[in-house]
UniProtKB/TrEMBL annotation:
<keyword id="KW-0805">Transcription regulation</keyword>
<dbReference type="GO" id="GO:0043565">
    <property type="term" value="F:sequence-specific DNA binding"/>
</dbReference>
<keyword id="KW-0238">DNA-binding</keyword>
<dbReference type="Pfam" id="PF01497">
    <property type="entry name" value="Peripla_BP_2"/>
</dbReference>
<dbReference type="InterPro" id="IPR018060">
    <property type="entry name" value="HTH_AraC"/>
</dbReference>
<dbReference type="InterPro" id="IPR009057">
    <property type="entry name" value="Homeodomain-like_sf"/>
</dbReference>
<keyword id="KW-0804">Transcription</keyword>
<dbReference type="GO" id="GO:0030288">
    <property type="term" value="C:outer membrane-bounded periplasmic space"/>
</dbReference>
<keyword id="KW-0732">Signal</keyword>
<keyword id="KW-0813">Transport</keyword>
<dbReference type="GO" id="GO:0003700">
    <property type="term" value="F:DNA-binding transcription factor activity"/>
</dbReference>
<dbReference type="InterPro" id="IPR002491">
    <property type="entry name" value="ABC_transptr_periplasmic_BD"/>
</dbReference>
<feature type="domain" description="Fe/B12 periplasmic-binding">
    <location>
        <begin position="268"/>
        <end position="528"/>
    </location>
</feature>
<dbReference type="Pfam" id="PF12833">
    <property type="entry name" value="HTH_18"/>
</dbReference>
<dbReference type="InterPro" id="IPR051313">
    <property type="entry name" value="Bact_iron-sidero_bind"/>
</dbReference>
<dbReference type="GO" id="GO:1901678">
    <property type="term" value="P:iron coordination entity transport"/>
</dbReference>
<comment type="similarity">
    <text>Belongs to the bacterial solute-binding protein 8 family.</text>
</comment>
Length: 528
């Protein structure tokens, strides 16, 4: 959700810091959510869309700079086929000779449009990528000049139409329980109703009425998660005087009636380990709590962030488990589902909160994991029906893929930092070589997990097609840029024939029923 922030005045920039430009890039179109390890500045070159920094969404605008801090994640969604082009400048901040994560700006910073800023972006981008060291030095100084101009051109939000429409969106967020009309919102923005309707749609990608409905339904879902909630009271609290009209709108938005949705939410189920979420959602059961983040659980965050009331940290390796336990203790769930890979101390504390069912993650395949999850939530029949549908989908997918990939030797692999690994995830192995029965290169055992391989070793396998996952973090992305220039990479058979297919971390690095189904769908979309 958009957040207003006060912008520092130009004369408050600390004079005891110095900055070194690390890299420049030009990002275009949709951007898979990735981790940022240094400071980053994003400036729009063309187009529009939505930028997500961690869990906060912003509308990409040409009159705004976006500052990202080390350890945050970013992703870009587009409204139309054109999408945005963004200058991306990564840099380090030093104070008294030591690296410093503090910086005067963070998030969205409005600026006055200046031709000088656009010209400086082009200069920094071109100079920093030049073969000549003197030109690269010029890029460093030009970046300092760019930051100076941004600091000089920062502005407090004024009464322009963009800022005004932001205020109406914030008004909807906090007053959705009241009667709201387009004329009322247009008057608040001090523009005509016709222009307001058009501007809201262009700014946020959906109409103001659709947004109001979305906010109201989301609020209703939160209320339905409470015990003893009455439908007529919920309808009134979210701005609908007519309970039956509310029911129709709710079903239009969610596909199920409010009574069915409430029935499914009566049992307060908490998912503690991310993979279990993919099993539970295959059973059409939405938990009360689950790990959610736009990078680490991208698909589920996008679809269910409004349906799941309690968001646990989804950061890799569960670094925030103590905070997650505190949230669960306060929520008092009826049942907790987790993987059996948790540490002993973590398990001991988890079991003091509610009954826990541990799903064997490494020793059992996803089908058995789904059955164990289904038994825990009394949905065994639903699990068997889901697997029947999955097998039918796989059968149809195999027929379609046979026409495109029949006889080809396919290798799946991932690039993480400087290491290439063959078939690093169980999902890749199960779906590609098991369910879809694709042929691995001669000499590769598809059942072996995560074997590291060199470029020479990869070339020796002589694969017809490479399915490549690149971890979305700085070192891996930089290594991918480097690999594409190497003669050893360019000489590999699949590279020469243009048969390298990039596959996203979501779903290919997850292992669950839902993820495997999405892998099959992805293969059909790419090759079917």
């Amino acid at each position: 959700m958009h957040r207003e922030r006060e912008i520092l005045q130009a004369d408050t920039m600390p004079d005891d810091i110095w900055i070194k430009l690390r890299s420049t890039d030009l990002l275009s179109g949709e951007l898979e959510h990735r981790l940022v390890s240094s400071h980053m500045l994003l400036l729009s070159r063309t187009g529009g869309g939505r930028l997500t920094i961690d869990v906060t969404e912003y509308t990409l605008r040409p009159d705004t700079a976006y500052f990202i801090c080390p350890g945050q994640t970013i992703g870009v969604a587009v409204h139309d086929k054109d999408g945005p082009e963004l200058f991306a400048f990564q840099y380090d901040v030093f104070r008294d000779g030591e690296a410093d994560h503090a910086f005067p700006y963070a998030g969205e910073v409005p600026i006055y449009p200046e031709q000088q800023i656009g010209a400086l972006c082009e200069l920094v981008y071109g100079s920093s990528r030049h073969d000549n060291s003197l030109e690269r030095f010029r890029g460093q100084s030009a970046f300092q000049e760019l930051l100076y101009w941004i600091a000089k051109q920062t502005r407090r939000r004024t009464t322009d139409s963009r800022a005004a429409i932001d205020r109406t969106k914030a008004y909807i967020d906090s007053h959705y329980g009241e009667s709201i009309t387009i004329d009322q919102l247009a008057r608040m923005a001090e523009i005509s109703s016709k222009y307001y309707v058009d501007l809201f749609k262009r700014t946020y990608g959906l109409s103001a009425i659709d947004y109001l409905t979305e906010v109201r339904v989301t609020a209703a879902k939160r209320l339905m998660a409470r015990s003893g909630a009455l439908l007529r009271n919920i309808a009134q609290q979210v701005g609908y005087g007519d309970e039956f009209y509310f029911s129709r709108k709710f079903k239009q938005e969610t596909g199920v009636s409010p009574t069915v949705y409430m029935k499914n939410r009566r049992r307060k189920i908490a998912v503690y380990s991310s993979p279990i979420l993919g099993h539970l959602l295959a059973l059409d059961i939405i938990p009360y709590a689950a790990p959610l983040h736009p990078k680490w659980t991208a698909h589920y965050y996008k679809l269910f962030k409004s349906d799941i009331p309690l968001h646990l940290s989804a950061y890799r390796y569960n670094m925030h488990w103590e905070s997650n336990l505190a949230k669960l203790a306060a929520a008092a769930p009826d049942l907790i589902l987790g993987c059996d890979t948790l540490t002993g101390g973590e398990k001991d504390q988890l079991e003091t909160i509610a009954p826990v069912v541990y799903v064997p993650y490494k020793e059992r395949g996803w089908r058995e994991q789904l059955r164990i999850t289904a038994e825990a939530v009394d949905a065994t029949r639903e699990a068997e029906m889901w697997m029947q549908r999955y097998e039918s989908k796989v059968t149809a997918a195999k027929r379609r893929l046979e026409r495109q990939l029949g006889g080809q030797r396919v290798v799946a692999m991932s690039l993480f930092q400087q290491t290439i690994r063959l078939s690093p995830t169980a999902g890749m192995r199960d779906v590609l070589y098991g369910d879809l029965a694709l042929l691995p290169p001669a000499g590769i055992d598809p059942g072996r997990k995560g074997e590291a391989i060199t470029l020479d070793g990869l070339a020796a396998y002589d694969a017809d097609r490479i399915m490549l996952n690149i971890c979305q973090e700085p070192e891996s992305l930089a290594e991918w840029e480097r690999l594409q220039q190497l003669p050893e990479w360019l000489g590999i058979k699949a590279v020469r024939s243009g048969a390298v297919t990039l596959i996203a971390s979501d779903p290919w690095r997850e292992y669950s029923a839902s993820a495997c189904e999405r892998m099959v769908d992805d293969m059909v979309n790419k090759f079917g």
